[in-house]
Design brief:
Layout (H helix, E strand, L loop, with lengths): L14 H4 L14 H12 L4 E5 L6 H11 L3 E6 L6 H11 L1 H5 L12 H14 L2 E4 L1 E7 L7 H10 L2 E6 L6 H17 L7 E6 L18 E5 L5 H15 L1 E2 L2 H11 L3 H13 L11 E2 L4 H25 L8 H12 L4 E2 H9 L7 H12 L7 E4 L4 E4 L2 H17 L8 H17 L8
Parallel strand pairs: 1-6, 1-7, 2-5, 5-6, 8-9
Antiparallel strand pairs: 3-4, 10-12, 11-12
Helix pairs in contact: 2-3, 7-8, 9-10, 9-11, 10-11, 11-12, 12-17, 13-14, 13-16, 16-17
Organism: Cerina litoralis
Pfam family, one: AAA_22
Keywords: ATP-binding, Nucleotide-binding
Length: 445
């Protein structure tokens, strides 16, 4: 593809290619040398299977996609939801192998696929065309042919020199996590014949065992890589590198505020920087350098919050739903963290604050529901720093939304957000305007 340059010799980049809040960074990739070195090593060692884990927005997908490209490895990607089964993932992976079996050349390497394997692939493909109706005439489920086992899939992947990337595997049920561990063991064995075949499982969690439920036998054959949240230095690099690519300039105060609001999440940093540009009519590399006014932070955050309003309501309503009769656990915990008015709080601080209003609240309840609130099932409302053992809100805007929502629920004696969402959104935007005006957030960085 021919590169396009402007009058001054700058390569033209589209805004959506530079700031990418919803997909892996390509053009505006920030190097993370230590992580890259570890992943590269695991990709090169024959038989090693990979688990990449960390909080949502930490850059797991970007890291592994860059590593695969850097090492010139073919890959197919399947994504998981809570109801995904291993059988469904196998079918999905099989389907995505089609380009490698319909042509002689892969994107990055020649694939030595024998005629007999192509015939076997075509035969299974034909069998998968049949569908089995379930309950109604409008619902169908594809049948998994007997001959499509995970060993056979590993063989197909191996012949295509292809890595299997499974995203969000932490979302599936425990039984499926155990099955994947067995599949990984099979991939270790088949690597004797196909050295490049391997599985990479990605999960937005605190522990690799939350991604794959593996046993001791598999442990020596696994590479576990924790991807931490981005540092302020790394967030600054995203903003400054993007500015160079687009030939624009962000004033220092705007950079600091963007970093502070991003709260270590690359995804928020990208969307705020995108909004800064979009609101100033920048959709590609500028011919003449343009300075973005610092005042744009106000509108950028309003746009972000408006886009997230429905998501905020759903997250909070889901957290507040519970069957327990005696204690409103999530509500007590979230209220305690907010009233402590600190960036990071300990388990004991939360429990002590709860005891001020609920004297008989059990310590075990606090532990159990904190775990739920940091899990993917709890929408990762909170996050925990494993080193310090402290908890904080993942999204600072959600913290503000949560504070106002809980205050209103308490005053109106309600259990769900319901029809007060629009009022909350309006109040939240006013609160943000005030905090930006008084420069409250910019001081944090």
């Amino acid at each position: 593809m021919r590169e396009i340059f402007n009058f001054f010799g700058l390569r033209i980049q589209q805004l959506e290619s530079v700031f990418t809040p919803s997909n892996a960074a390509k053009v505006n990739y920030i190097n993370r040398p230590d992580l890259e070195k570890k992943v590269d090593k695991a990709l090169k060692i024959v038989g090693t299977q990979l688990i990449i884990y960390g909080h949502s927005g930490s850059g797991k997908t970007t890291l592994i996609r860059k590593a695969l490209n850097r090492n010139k490895r073919n890959f197919i990607k399947t994504s998981c939801i809570s109801t995904s089964t291993l059988e469904e993932l196998i079918v999905n992976a099989f389907d995505k192998l089609n380009p490698f079996y319909s042509t002689k050349k892969s994107k990055k390497r020649f694939s030595k696929i024998t005629p007999s394997l192509k015939i076997a692939y075509a035969g299974i493909g034909s069998a998968l065309q049949s569908e089995l109706s379930i309950e109604t005439s409008t619902e169908f489920q594809r049948v998994l042919p007997v001959q499509l086992t995970f060993e056979k899939l590993a063989e197909f992947l191996g012949a295509a020199n292809c890595v299997w990337l499974i995203d969000d595997f932490h979302k599936v049920q425990v039984a499926e996590k155990k099955k994947l561990a067995e599949v990984m063991k099979a991939f270790v064995d088949i690597s004797d014949d196909y050295p490049e075949v391997k599985i990479i499982a990605l999960g937005a969690v605190n522990s690799p065992r939350e991604v794959v439920n593996y046993n001791k036998e598999l442990k020596p054959r696994l590479s576990e890589t924790y991807v931490p949240l981005l540092s302020n230095i790394e967030l600054r690099k995203i903003i400054e590198n993007g500015a160079k690519l687009l030939n624009i300039e962000f004033p220092e105060n705007l950079v600091k505020q963007t970093i502070s609001y991003a709260n270590s999440l690359g995804s928020i940093c990208h969307i705020l920087a995108y909004n800064h540009c979009d609101l100033n009519g920048i959709d590609k590399t500028c011919r003449i350098k343009k300075e973005i006014p610092a005042s744009v932070i106000n509108e950028s955050i309003e746009d972000y919050v408006k886009d997230k309003a429905d998501n905020y309501q759903e997250k909070l309503d889901n957290a507040l739903k519970q069957r327990e009769r005696k204690f409103k656990n999530a509500r007590l915990i979230l209220n305690a963290i907010i009233k402590l008015n600190k960036e990071n709080v300990t388990h004991n601080e939360i429990l002590t604050k709860i005891h001020e209003v609920q004297h008989d609240y059990p310590q075990g309840n606090c532990t159990t529901y904190l775990k739920k609130l940091i899990s993917s099932d709890g929408n990762e409302i909170l996050r925990v720093d494993e080193n310090s053992g402290t908890y904080s809100f993942s999204d600072p805007f959600f913290k503000a939304y949560c504070k106002m929502a809980l205050d209103k629920l308490e005053k109106e004696n309600k259990d769900e957000i319901g029809d007060i969402k629009e009022i909350l959104l309006k109040d939240l935007i006013e609160k943000i305007r005030f905090e930006i005006k008084t420069n409250a957030y910019s001081q944090k960085s």
